[in-house]
Design brief:
CATH superfamily: DnaA, N-terminal domain
Strand order of the largest sheet: 1-2-3
Radius of gyration: 15 Å
CATH architecture: 2-Layer Sandwich
CATH class: Alpha Beta
Structural class: alpha+beta
Oligomer: single chain
CATH topology: GMP Synthetase, Chain A, domain 3
Largest sheet: 3 strands, mixed
Number of helices: 3
Length: 94
């Protein structure tokens, strides 16, 4: 395989990953609304678990209470092959 073919493959993979990340972020924003989206950030999609950083404990608590509803709406809006079965909230950088 030539170097140019390897570079094309890498770029293609990065573009697909970026498209999927954008789809996750958009689905997340649609699932939680603008106000909550401003205090949260999807940071990792591992298996069927979506890990979300939240700005503080009050948002962590509020969103934890709404997990089932959020997962349902997220999966309905997700334009990716991945679907979430679990949400994990943690206080972290937004």
């Amino acid at each position: 395989m030539e170097l140019k073919d390897v570079v094309k493959q890498v770029i293609s993979g990065l573009e697909k990953r970026q498209e999927e990340e954008s789809a996750v972020i958009k689905a997340w924003q649609n699932a939680v609304g603008k106000k909550a989206a401003a205090h949260t950030k999807p940071v990792l999609f591992k298996g069927k678990k979506l890990v979300i950083n939240v700005s503080d404990s009050s948002w962590l608590y509020k969103l934890t209470l709404e997990k089932k509803r959020i997962i349902k709406i997220f999966n309905e809006n997700a334009k990716t092959r991945k679907k979430a079965e679990e949400l994990q909230f943690r206080i972290g950088e937004i």
